Amino acid sequence: MTSRDAILNAVRSRRQADVAAPEIPAFSRNDGSLEHQFVEALERVSGRVVEVGNADDRQYGTVSEALHACYPEANAIAPTRPEWWEGAVIVHDAFDSGMLTSVDLFVCSAELGVAENGGVWLTALGHPAAPFGASNLAVVLDQQTIVPDMHAAYRMIQPADSDYAVFVSGPSKTADIEQSLVIGAHGPKTLTVVLV
Amino acid sequence: MYDLPVIDHPNAAAAFNEDDERVEWHDRALWFVREKRDSAADQIPEWEELRELASQIKSHTLSKLDTYLTEFEARAAANGVQVHWARDADEHNAIVHSILDEREARFVVKSKSMLTEECGLNPYLEEHGIGVVDTDLGERIVQLSEDAPSHIVMPAIHFRKEQVSELFHEKLDTIAGSVDPTYLVQAACRSLRADFVQADAAVTGVNFAVAESGGIVVCTNEGNADLGVHLAPLHIACMGIEKIIPTFDDLAVFLRLLARSATGQPITVYTSHFHRPRPDQEMHIVIVDNGRSRHLSSAEFQNALKCIRCGACMNTCPVYRRSGGHSYGYTIPGPIGSILAPERDPGAHASLPFASTLCGSCSDVCPVKIDIHEQLYGWRQALARDRRLAREKGWMMRVAGFVFARPALYRFVGSMARRMLKLLPRKVIYAKANVWGRSRELPEPPQESFREWFAVNGANTGRSSDSTRHAE
Fold first, then answer.
1. Residue A187 in contact with partner chain B when CB distance is under 8 A
2. Distance in angstroms (rounded) separating the CA atoms of residues A107 and A91
3. B132 — phi, psi (to 5°)?
């Protein structure tokens, strides 16, 4: 008998009586502006948010302007779209992995944002190592795509459509040395969400 | 006649307690994490409902585990992922080894996986000439110091920063005496970067395996699992059979509970969904039983299989906080460890269910509502029935049973004790045999027993004429 059969037989013969799956309710909330909650949640985990648009109250006119302002010292920039940083090398899946670890700033777009935790859902990465190898990460997010919570997020996204996809909430961090929080571990040390 | 426990929690805990200052620090640090969990939970009005849902989803899944396992396997295989099954730890290690061997992989980076700890994968691979580097910073600290993890989420919580500084100075050439955490973290990350780039394979754990898509989800704050997998030509993900959940809608419930319960964060920095390998990469999943299917057969104890490895029970447990993870002598310590370990090996781990005050705090914070404190009590009964109590405890219980069953003897022993406590010198009362009195004062012996008092006063205690009788 294969191990597979042995295990499945063991499980089949030993499991307890059937229990029905519960129904997961839609948790409605009316907490005000989703954008405001998203910004608050992200800032609480050391992320930064800048706003781009034509209205007077927007900080910057274009994504490119915002990125240049936030990362003036960056040299090796790898965006997934050329209009975000003139002259930069576009990330693609044949990228040399060594190069990915010497990128100062990686820029990509998010499919949606989650207000309850400041998370952004990244699917179009060019190369999956890009958002982890780079020293800094910037994500362009359409504020209309911010949803209230993870239930709403999973109702909208199709994780299986991507070989790899990830929710990112803030820059990488660790508290493994005597519980002192250090921002910047293996992944990027900053995360900037550019809200458009 | 008795199986003496191999891991004796009280003795190990006594060793930990020799360093008062360290105990205080450990206690405070963990309680602080519990408080962060509370703040996070308080911000979710539906928190208790989420816990109940998570518990029911797990019960449902366990009741149809074989169906979900086969569904998961079929979808993963359709995604081009190779799925393997391991009956036990030895088979798991052999499978991982053979996958590595076939691709001549000699150097592996590994992100956090309690399952691989349970199976002893690292020493096995090293014995077979394959180098393994643990990339989670806490686990790396533990690995470099050739120590063992003491907490499932914060494996190096038992290290002070001075110890880390000394360790890194020795192994990573950091400046002697520098205790700045940022400096130390950066040094470790620089060293590990080189390992990521050179690795032939990346081994990861699995936080959740989603049956409806065949995908696996890995949650980290550091990004080490991702960096490892995305730079390596081979990805091996190891999971216990109980990691399966049915759908992404279920996943949402667990993701809202996991990080808040573990560290008080709304979610981990990275929640990675792996479905298919890169075109230039191979992906394998090893599904492991190692005693889990046997655990399923116990209606009383199977709920422990719902565990999502958040560590909240450890953070709140007064015994864990003041005895440290190493006192438990099992891969997974604390309250959940104390109900998992005896299932695995009741002889070796008989002292663990007694390493508890049965306060129930663990059950209060468990995101999947495992009745931990009830199972701790259940295990005590099971161990006593199987005559696995520590010799002194078994003996004391039988003496107590003998006395309590004989009312006249009980009265006599009681009155002797009250008299002796007043007459005997302190040195005799607090002799070594008085374990309870080691760090506590015994109460003042009363003048008379309740029975004696009631005989005189009982019938006449101020009762008004229309007071009602309490039904017994």
1. yes
2. 9
3. -125, 130
Task: Tell whether A26 lies on the interface with B, counting CB pairs under 8 A.
Answer: no
Which of B79, B214, B252 has its CB closest to that of A151? B252
Q: Looking at CA atoms only, how far is residue A56 from chain B in angstroms?
A: 33
Task: Name every residue whose Cβ is closer than 8 Å to that of residue B397 and which is 6 or more positions away in sequence.
Answer: B384, B389
B413 to each of B427, B442, B445, B447, how far by Cα in Å? 21, 17, 13, 15
Q: Which two tokens stand for residue B263?
A: 């560290």
Nearest-CB residue to A182 (from B160, B182, B268): B182
Coil/strand/helix, residue B272: strand
Please check whether residue A53 touches B, CB under 8 A: no
CA distance B399 to chain A (A): 39
Q: Say if the Cβ atoms of A22 and B57 lie within 8 Å.
A: yes
Q: Considering the entire predicted model, what is its pTM?
A: 0.92
* Residues B185, A128: C-beta atoms closer than 8 Å: no
pLDDT tens over chain B, length 472 residues: 333 445 689 889 999 999 999 999 999 999 999 999 999 999 999 999 999 999 999 999 999 999 999 999 999 999 999 999 999 999 999 999 999 999 999 999 999 999 999 999 999 999 999 999 999 999 999 999 998 899 999 999 899 999 999 999 999 999 999 999 999 999 999 999 999 999 999 999 999 999 999 999 999 999 999 999 999 999 999 999 999 999 999 999 999 999 999 999 999 999 999 999 999 999 999 999 999 999 999 999 999 999 999 999 999 999 999 999 999 999 999 999 999 999 999 988 999 999 999 999 999 999 999 999 999 999 999 998 998 887 777 788 889 999 999 999 999 999 998 888 888 888 888 888 787 788 788 888 888 888 888 988 887 665 554 445 554 4
Q: Indicate the residue of A98, A128, A167 with minimum beta-carbon distance to B267.
A: A167
Cite the beta strand spans of A84-189 per DSSP E.
105-109, 112-114, 119-122, 136-141, 146-147, 164-168, 173-174, 182-183
- Nearest chain A residue (CA) to B63: A18
Query: Do A160 and B87 make contact, defined as CB atoms within 8 angstroms?
Result: no
Chains A–B, number of C-beta pairs less than 8 Å apart:
241
Contact B185 A119 (CB under 8 A): no
Q: Is the ipTM of this complex over 0.95?
A: yes
Q: Please say whether the beta carbons of A120 and A168 come within 8 A.
A: yes
Q: Of A82, A74, A143, whose CA–CA distance to A103 is shortest? A: A74
Tokens 């990339």 belong to B135
| Smallest CA–CA distance from A161 into chain B, residue | B275
**Best A106, A122, A132 residue to mutate vs chain B (most B CBs within 10 Å):** A132
